Amino acid sequence: MMQEREVGQIVTHTVDMMNALSVRQFSLPPNTYIGAGAIARTGEAIEKCGVHRVLVLTDEMLEKMGLPEGMYRALNYSNIEYSVFCMPIGEPKSADVEAAARQAAESGCGAIVAFGGGSALDAAKAVALLLANPGTTVSALEDSTHILPRTMPLVAVPTTAGTGSEATTVTVITDSVRHVKRILVHDSLMPDLAIIDACLMLGVPPHVTAATGMDALSHAIEAHVASGATSMTQALAYRAISLIGEALPIVVGKGSDVAAREAMALASYMAGIAFSNAGLGLCHAMSHQIGAAYNIPHGVANAIMLPSVMHYNQLVCKKTYPEIGLALTGRMMDAAETIRCVQQLIVEIDLPANLLEAGARKEDFARFAEDALNDPCLTANPRTASKEQIVGVYLHAYHRAGREVRA
Ligand SMILES: [Fe+2]
């Protein structure tokens, strides 16, 4: 029988924990190298970890283009051996992630270096977690309540400015069998080191630059109004929005502009920290569904959903949207004009202006709404949403002004 003293301890601990419910945790990469030429520091960074062999996880296209060559030179200079796994083009699939984890285990590597866009970074984070939980799969990890933390160093080198994956505790992997997005959130998914070198981003084509840039903007806007937002995350989100407002049209129009690329790289990183700590919202919860079903790139899916989700959330964001408008344009404006400015930016950088242009089918919306309700991103949305309301937002995004705005 439980002693009176033990019962007292449990009651006291419960009260202590209830008092601590408002305590917020804030995490970011313990180390970041940022600036043109930073990639040359990769070797010395790995050396500091006491590791002599790494798995480099990149994608087929970047490897073919030779973009990782500067990093390979840096690794060779520091006598770091490396084994390369190239992910197929596209968003990371669980079967490829599990194959990469097998190669990592067989290669005897002591660290994972992710080099690429958000897909390569997300894949590498899942690989690192699989290595710490041998015998498991990506879908089993998502369902597990007891995930062992990552055991080897993780270095993230982004080559696009968008996901901010180099600064988050999140990874999104598409289930190869069920074609749904598996979202893993774990403290140990935060990379130990982010190496952000905008020179690696100079050759990113305009349509990828536009899509990834809109992903970063949707992170910053959702984080700014998320239920988990704090002054700290809003400071990062606000500055990210202002950097994107200025630099995104420039990098889409002139990809070789190093200063604008650096601004976007920094904005993506800041927005990543902001949303990793504050949460996202309905835009990501809804875009995950259309991305997986129609194979729409993540950033494009967010661009399609963002103005309609902002329209829906406007009811509870009358104070915060004008702040977003000011950050984005440098001008004072009301909530409605802020949404119009976001929509205008999407049209200017030539992304689909609505779900109709993206080839969506209205009959799918009820199923998407059902799945969006179960998406973990929804919990931080500032306005609650029912299945019917989410279908309404999909319909708004379907019928929203499109080609005529572009014309
Ligand atoms: Fe995203």
Give a short overview.
This protein has 407 residues and is α/β, with parallel strands linked by helices. Helices cover 53% and strands 11% of the residues. The N and C termini lie far apart (77 Å).
Describe the structure.
With 407 residues, the protein is α/β, with parallel strands linked by helices. It has 2 domains: 31-200, Rossmann fold (3-Layer(aba) Sandwich); 205-406, Dehydroquinate synthase-like - alpha domain (Dehydroquinate synthase-like, alpha domain, Up-down Bundle), CATH 1.20.1090.10. Helix content is 53%, strand content 11%. The protein has 17 helices and 8 strands. The chain has helices at residues 4-19, 42-48, 60-65, 69-77, 94-107, 118-132, 138-143, 206-225, 231-253, 258-278, 282-294, 298-313, 320-329, 335-348, 365-373, 387-399, 403-406; strands at 31-34, 53-59, 81-87, 111-116, 154-158, 170-174, 181-185, 193-196. The strands form 2 sheets. It has a 6-stranded parallel β-sheet with strand order 1-8-5-4-2-3, sandwiched between helices. A two-stranded antiparallel sheet has the order 6-7. Helix 8 (206-225) packs antiparallel against helix 9 (231-253). The protein is globular and about 55 Å long. It starts with a helix and ends with a helix. 51% of the residues are buried. Bound molecules: fe (ii) ion.
